Known about the structure:
Shape: rod-shaped
Structural class: mainly alpha
Amino acid sequence: MPTFEWIVGILFSVVTAAFWRWADKLGKNDDEIHKRLETIVRQIHEVEKTYQSKADAKHESSEIKALLKEIRAELKEVSSKIDKKADKSC
């Protein structure tokens, strides 16, 4: 017949084994989480390298606006010349 100490020893062994399985599973989950985090950090870094900053966007926008103003002025000038030629021919 099993003694009390023997039963406690078996229970302690089972509890210890279950604890270490649980701890190992947590460790594997932790490794997986770290790998995912590293992947996300790399992806964020890639986005940062190709992302246009607000200052760059404002600068490019102001350059485009300036070019459009020049085009508009030249178009008005051409339109004015065409109107003058049309008036002369009539």
